[in-house]
Amino acid sequence: MIVLVSVLVFSTLGLGLLSQVQHNGIEAARRIQSTQAFWTAEGGIHQAVCRLDRDVAYRLSPTPLSGTLGNLPYDVSVSKSGLMFDVRSIGTAAAWKRTVELSLEFVPSVSMVDTNDLLVVLNWQEQ
């Protein structure tokens, strides 16, 4: 009788432990996918900032961008108001979508010696 009760107790504990391990594995996969979506959105932001910094035609008339980092897609929208730009990037990994938004101001160079224009970050936020 004691052996039967011991087997029952240890079986119950074993099943509980297996359930917890499975739950932890699922939670770890979710965190990885969420992090991948975030960094994909960040990559989209950086693609747009590079285009704004290097491409005068794009700076004058920005259009949406989309692409992949690895095999993870991002979609970027860029809106312009004067010398101000609002950039919004959505990164996707599995069922996760993460959004990063950035507000920039373009500051043209006024120096004859230093002709580097500036993009000044006014606001960055993750949603």
Structure report:
There is one protein chain. Helices cover 46% and strands 36% of the residues. It has 127 residues and is an alpha+beta fold. The protein has a single domain (2-126), classed as Pantoate--beta-alanine Ligase, Chain: A,domain 2, CATH 3.30.1300. The chain has helices spanning 2-54, 56-60, and strands at residues 65-69, 72-81, 84-93, 96-107, 118-126. It has two helices and five strands. A five-stranded antiparallel sheet has the order 1-2-3-4-5. The protein is rod-shaped.
CATH architecture: 2-Layer Sandwich
Q: What is the helix fraction of residues, given as a range?
A: 40-55%
How many beta strands in the DSSP annotation?
A: 5
How far the N terminus sits from the C terminus, by CA atoms, comes to: 58 Å
Strand order within the widest beta sheet: 1-2-3-4-5
Beta-strand share of residues: 35-45%
Q: Judging from the principal axes of the Cα atoms, what is the shape?
A: rod-shaped
Query: Regarding CATH, which class?
Result: Alpha Beta
Number of domains: 1
Low-confidence stretches: none
Rounded Rg: 24 Å
Question: What class, by secondary structure content?
Answer: alpha+beta
